[in-house]
Amino acid sequence: MADAALRLKDLVEQLLGAPLPLRIRAWDGSQAGPPHAPALVVHNRRAVRRLLWRPGELGLARAWVAGDLEIEGDLYTALDLVAGLVWERGEDARSLLQALRDPEVRAALRGLVRFAGPPLPPAPPREEVRRRGHLHTRRSDKRAISHHYDVGNDFYEIVLGPSMVYSCAYWPAPEPDSTLETAQRDKLELVCRKLALTHGQRLLDVGCGWGSMAIHAAREHGVSVVGITLSHEQAAYARKRVADEGLTDRVEIRVQDYRDVADGPYDAISSIGMAEHVGSKRYLEYAEDLFRLLKPGGRLLNHQIGRRPRRDESAYSVDEFIDAYVFPDGELAPVGATVAQLERAGFEVRDLESIREHYALTLRRWVANLEAGWARAVRLTSPGRARVWRLYMAASALAFERNRIGVNQVLAIRTPTSGTSGMPLRARTWN
Fold first, then answer.
1. What is the pLDDT along the chain (431 residues), one digit of tens a residue?
2. What pairs with residue 299 in β-bridges?
3. Taking a C-beta distance cutoff of 8 angstroms, is the pair 381, 258 a contact?
4. Which of 66, 129, 135, 294 could potentially form a cystine with 414 if both were Cys, beta carbons 3.0 to 4.6 Å apart?
5. CATH for 321
6. Who's near 28: CB < 8 A, 6+ residues apart?
7. Which residues form the Polyketide synthase-like methyltransferase domain (predicted)?
8. d(Cα 56, Cα 19) in Å, to the nearest integer?
9. Total structural domains within the chain
10. Does residue 327 sit in helix, strand or coil?
11. Are 336 and 310 in contact (CB under 8 A)?
12. How far apart are CA 255 and CA 236, in angstroms?
């Protein structure tokens, strides 16, 4: 058949109820769609079978990770065009079910089934998580963290650059004049200033990653730091960095669950890009544990990605692609829900700063790093894993830019019974 692209284009447009803004180039050499638009390259019939067996985001993700689909042209432009159809048209599952009632669409699907090849579902790519057991137990959290962070320290060095900070940087204006490393240093310093760290204090860094926050706080502010992570690879890397900096007397890196920390109280706690892993059912427990570990008057800086709230929160479901390939068991909550849980745990929330645009800029730099080191990244992991990260980070950059998701720094205090918070009357002295 020499018209696969045209038939695919017609079917997609019937399902969407709108013109397809991308070109399609199919395995038989045929092309259809706007001639100057980025192309969705469908390499084989297996891509179609993946979509037939799992319509929607997960089927597309499996085809992308397996290399059955790719984008020819600018990735951001292609994703932005698709986002305009999906994100702004509401829940695509409802649209799909409605389209399937159309006799013409059902006829087109029958034709698609006939030329898609053997009627067996292709096996998911090996990079996909296999679910086992209950969510957010100590064991399942450790397994989820290992899937995401134990990809290899060398791989993360390619993506993150020398700073090895895996969270939103803090960019000056104008942004093009700053390096990623400078912006990440500025973010770490911003956290330290919000926590009002002073020489001799104890800091707990929850989800310490590769040790960047712990090292910065100890070196620049003279505090003693305990950094905890569930990733053995991260811990080994962080310990070496601490030793190389000559800070082993002030920084301890542990492989430990936050629920098992028992050596409080601490003067301050930083949690940067970790709380997304906690889960809504465990979030109050997380907040209560951090409250317990702080001394009266101590400060918590909770840096966390949040999603936009929905009118019907009961209808919220996690992103299938991210859950299966990127952050297993991760959940995003609206910032209002996060603040409410912190307050329920006993914290007084004193400041909230949204730095959404900063994360979009950071992700675009990470994508550029990955693309520049693509061949090595593939050798260190797998072609599928590298494709997961490229798609995930590029799509996330657009989600931040379009205000689909945000990132917030919440400063909270374990206010003493006297009510003396220790906060200055003009709080934002860190700006």
1. 468 899 888 877 876 677 889 999 999 999 999 999 999 999 999 998 888 888 777 888 899 999 999 999 999 999 998 876 655 554 444 555 566 567 776 776 677 777 677 777 889 898 888 765 556 566 666 565 665 565 789 999 999 999 999 999 999 987 677 899 999 999 999 999 999 999 999 999 999 999 999 999 999 999 999 999 999 999 999 999 999 999 999 999 999 999 999 999 999 999 999 999 898 889 999 999 999 999 999 999 999 999 999 887 766 667 788 888 887 777 899 999 999 999 999 999 999 999 999 999 999 999 999 999 999 999 999 999 999 999 999 999 999 999 999 999 999 999 999 999 988 888 787 76
2. 268, 413
3. no
4. 294
5. 3.40.50.150
6. 1, 2, 3, 4, 5
7. 155-412
8. 18
9. 2
10. coil
11. no
12. 9
Domain that holds residue 150: 138-413
Regarding whether 357 and 251 lie in a shared domain, the answer is yes
SS3 267: strand
**How many CA atoms does the CB half-sphere of 10 hold within 13 Å?**
13
- 103 burial class (0-12, 13-18, 19+ CB within 10 angstroms)? exposed
Q: Which helix (H) or strand (E) is 397 found in, with range?
A: helix 383-401
Angle at 429 between CA 426 and CA 431, to 5 degrees: 125
Are residues 219 and 182 part of one domain? yes
Q: Do both 262 and 350 map to the same domain?
A: yes
If asked whether residues 15 and 146 sit together in one domain, one would say: no
337 and 390 in a common domain: yes
- The closest of 353, 371, 361, 431 to 400, measured between CA atoms, is 361
Residue 381: name the closest of 179, 213, 233, 169 by CA.
233
Identify each DSSP E strand in 179-313 by its residue range: 202-206, 224-229, 251-255, 266-272, 294-307
Residue 419 lies in a domain: no
Helices (H), 116-248: 138-149, 153-160, 180-195, 212-221, 232-244
Token output for 73: 């042209």
* Residue positions counted in the chain: 431
User: Which of 50, 166, 154 lies closest to 112 in space, CA to CA?
Assistant: 50
Spatial separation of the C-alpha atoms in residues 159 and 394, rounded to whole Å = 13
* Nearest alpha-carbon partner for 144 in 275, 266, 324, 280: 324
